[in-house]
Design brief:
Endonuclease, Chain A; 3 domains; alpha/beta; polyphosphate kinase like; nine-stranded mixed β-sheet; 19 helices; single chain; 25 strands
Length: about 700
């Protein structure tokens, strides 16, 4: 049988459409809908910077590429271009609809043309005091060199002329809109219950003639343009340089990457657009997207929280863990039993508390952690520095190639190194993506080890918005093997042997294949056989093929996949035993939970790894088995709630139309993220038909 797959990049665009659906969903609070436009746009920016840039490189190679990646990159680029153009038009329509709806709540987005006298005075004052000092226009038709257009930035392409001298006196200029130092939105003085907001773009437009007053021009028009650049790092192979120097250079070079997309105001005069395109001197063909007046919609993630509270989501406070919150010592609790923490439903502060306790506890001798993405103002980094001051041995494995966090990770690595920590800069050729913590504590003459294995980063900021799970344990079966992983980080020749943890790139793929084969064997023998997978992405063709084979054998498979999913469920003779949903809601689904029936003796794992080639073969990832009976029940309950979601779940299928999985008549509505919170709070009502 011919196996069918949805290409990773096409599936990802379908995921981003689910994000876009949140902006169109009238049950979502209005300002949150505006923010989802920002998330959609931010996602698309990164998609072009990484995936489209990679496909563009591959399309140039041509020979052998289609066989290697399974798709023709040139054809994929055409499909992407077509889809993105449609999305751009739809985005502008939805934006206008949201703006109109905000007006019904007495919130108005005004531009430079409809300011009243008081607002004009306010904007003029704000412009002179805050905006003008940040502006540095470049007269591009006379400048010796065309200015470099930064990735992520937006610019005004400005056309200037005097009346009666359109051709002779015409000038072109470029202005960087300073959203890196000023907010994109300026909230104007309140008038009664009515709120007014103006974009920074329009503040500059309002005062555009003043910017160029010295030129004595009569007319100035500004049109927004935005360039997206290739963000893949080219790591320098110079052996004389340290890994830190190589990454720092690569990050700087990234900012000068080749353009892959240009978005522009479709009303821009042709002569001005052609002039800019000629000056940019692109090395390869890029995606040109005519758009509306505003670009960089990712700034709309920070749309002002004005108006009634009903216009915003209510984010309930994270719940304290009932046992950790009452304990004088967290070690005493973890020593007795394994602990599960699920964010953002439960508080990430327990991890900070555990580290703080470890930093001052005289019995603690050492702390080891993997650091992938830390918060901007990381309490964890400060606590580790404090542990060093208290005489603890601290080892941190800092992944310098955590995409778009390289500079921050270099900063924290240097800070901790200066304090005396042993800093391991990842592993050459292998990205460290595991979420591990190991604390050694001397108790009654022996060393007791406490471990952490999680699905998400040690980041208190993202823990408020990402759903993740963490296991805290003193089980020697687990902590002993976590110790082996840290030995591998210190000495890459010590791979180690693992009976409990699944470790990539060494054993994880083989283990997953073994688990699926066992389900196939049981199904063929007429025994109960099932698999439940909750992951961010499932695109690895070998594992997708194994899932198809399991389905054909009669294994019941249920998938909860947030992002890319190459599996096509429900195809007769291929995947009729596979069901797949995707949940997009106010929290980003990030936890990875795996369940294999295993003949009735279920295998349940938490893991940092998605089912992608890069995770299984090019990264160090960890999957931890869950042995504690109550924790297993909790994880199964979380999965059960999500599988019953009939509010925010979308059905994944071959047509990728993202239809909502709606409640049937007489069936209670289930919104998984709300119900999981209520489950942890102890007040979940069972979802049963009336």
């Amino acid at each position: 049988m011919k196996y069918k797959y949805i290409p990773r990049d096409i599936s990802w665009l379908s995921f981003n459409e689910r994000v876009f659906q949140e902006a169109t969903d009238k049950t979502v609070p209005l300002i949150e809908r505006m923010k989802f436009l920002g998330i959609f746009s931010s996602n698309l920016d990164e998609f072009f910077r990484v995936r489209v840039a990679t496909l563009s490189r591959l399309a140039e190679v041509k020979k052998g590429v289609s066989e290697f990646i399974g798709e023709d990159p040139a054809k994929l680029l055409k499909l992407i271009h077509k889809k993105v153009l449609g999305q751009q038009e739809e985005l502008e329509n939805v934006y206008k609809a949201i703006v109109d709806e905000l007006a019904t709540h007495k919130i108005f987005l005004v531009d430079e043309k409809n300011l009243n006298k008081e607002q004009s005075a306010f904007v003029l004052k704000y412009f002179h005091e805050s905006v003008l000092p940040t502006l540095a226009p470049v007269m591009i038709e006379t400048a010796p060199n065309f200015p470099y257009l930064n990735d992520k930035a937006i610019y005004f392409a400005v056309k200037l002329w005097r009346k009666g001298e359109v051709k002779k006196g015409m000038k072109y200029a470029l202005i960087h809109i300073p959203t890196d130092v000023l907010p994109r939105f300026v909230v104007l003085p309140k008038q009664g219950e009515t709120r007014y907001i103006i974009l920074l773009d329009n503040v500059i437009r309002f005062c555009l003639n003043e910017v160029f007053a010295v030129l004595e021009v009569d007319k100035a028009e500004a049109y927004t343009i935005k360039l997206t650049r290739d963000a893949e790092l080219d790591i320098d192979q110079d052996l004389s340089k340290s890994i830190v120097e190589k990454i720092e250079k690569s990050v700087k070079d990234r900012k000068k990457g080749d353009p892959v997309r240009m978005v522009y105001d479709r009303d821009i005069p042709k002569d001005l657009l052609q002039f800019i395109m000629k000056k940019i001197k692109m090395k390869r063909a890029i995606t040109l997207i005519p758009g509306g007046r505003y670009h960089n919609f990712r700034d709309f993630i920070n749309f002002p929280s004005v108006g009634n509270r009903e216009l915003l989501y209510h984010y309930p406070a994270p719940l304290p863990h009932p046992e950790l919150s009452k304990a004088r010592s967290l070690f005493s609790v973890i020593k007795k039993k394994d602990i599960l923490l699920c964010y953002p439903y439960q508080s990430f502060n327990h991890i900070i508390d555990l580290l703080r306790e470890a930093s001052i506890d005289p019995k603690v001798t050492s702390i080891k952690m993997t650091l992938y993405r830390l918060a901007k103002k990381s309490s964890i980094a400060y606590i580790l520095a404090n542990a060093l001051k208290n005489g603890k041995s601290v080892t941190v494995v800092v992944e310098l190639q955590a995409r778009f966090d390289e500079e921050a990770n270099i900063f924290w690595a240097n800070q901790l190194k200066e304090e005396g920590a042993e800093v391991i800069y990842g592993i050459s050729g292998l990205k460290v993506h595991s979420k591990l913590l190991l604390i050694n504590r001397e108790e009654n003459g022996e060393i007791v080890t406490y471990g952490h294995v999680g699905t998400g980063n040690f980041n208190e900021d993202t823990a408020r918005l990402y759903s993740d799970c963490t296991l805290l344990t003193s089980d020697k079966r687990i902590t002993g093997e976590i110790s082996k992983v840290f030995n591998f980080y210190s000495n890459n020749f010590k791979i180690g042997h693992y009976e409990h943890l699944l470790v990539s790139p060494f054993f994880m793929r083989k283990k997953f294949i073994k688990f699926i084969n066992k389900e196939i064997k049981h199904a063929e023998a007429g025994k109960e056989a099932y698999i439940i997978l909750k992951l961010n992405s499932i695109v690895d063709t070998e594992l997708v093929k194994k899932l198809y084979q399991a389905s054909q054998a009669g294994v019941k498979i249920k998938l909860i996949v947030r992002s890319s999913c190459s599996v096509i469920p429900g195809i007769k003779g291929l995947s009729e035993n596979i069901e797949a949903i995707s949940i997009v809601d106010k929290y980003l689904e990030h936890s990875r939970i795996l369940v294999f029936c295993n003949g009735g003796d279920e295998r349940i794992y938490l893991t940092s790894a998605d089912w992608m080639y890069r995770n299984l073969d090019l990264r160090n990832e960890i999957a931890v088995p869950i042995y504690d009976k109550k924790i297993r029940e909790k994880l199964k309950k979380i999965l059960d709630i999500q599988l019953h979601d009939n509010t925010k779940a979308r059905l994944l299928n071959e047509t990728q139309d993202n239809h909502y999985k709606l409640a049937l008549p007489g069936v209670k509505k289930v919104r998984a993220q709300d119900d999981i919170y209520n489950y942890f709070k102890g007040r979940l009502i069972a979802h049963k038909p009336k």
